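Sequence only, no structure available. Ideas?
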Amino acid sequence: MTQPKVIIADDHPLFRAALKQAVVESFSATDILETDNFTSLLKIVEQTPSLEIVFLDLHMPGNNGFTGLSQLRNHYPDLVVIMVSSDDNPEIMRKAIDLGAAAFIPKSADLVTISNAISCVLEGEEWLPENVENSFDSQSVNAINEHQRLAKQLSKLTPQQYIVLTYIADGQLNKQIAYDLDIKETTVKKHVSAILAKLQVNNRTLAGLAYQQLHLTNTENKPIAI
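Reply:
I predicted one. Tokens follow.
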């Protein structure tokens, strides 16, 4: 049986080595690529259509919160994305799943736990650390529903529309977006109209705010221990 091809995207060499060991033990034998920044990850994914699983560090260079996860899910919906992070905040872990991750593995996990998480994903299941689900109240459930709704809406955007949305969220005008993407301004306007319709909002400000939900909030973005 052909083993899945994997890439580990994390800027900490020691954790990449530990994760690689867990992957090898789980898959027995597989191709494992590595990178330490999100820009490089995108290039490798584009050039390697046989990739099946991405281990994505929540805080690696070029990845702002869940923007990397969302972009991968939009551009490469067949990829399985497993988030990894030093964060142990249950809300962040749950948010990752709601936005399309197959699992969230804390960097504090031992090799056995990591291997178990990988095995669950290979069986088509989602994985979170034990007892995470029990930590949510009614307010958290409402947030979960909102994140799932946002993920569904973002998945409806074409890759080009998704990129235009990132520019909108950055406050860029249609003329600036057209120049940067080397497309006509009328094309940008059509993309913006489609984006507003798919996100079910009335203006580009609300569209930008929707995208910014992918960023970590002040309460989520607490100091990280490496």
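Confidence is low (pLDDT under 50) at residues 222-226.
Hope that gets you unstuck.
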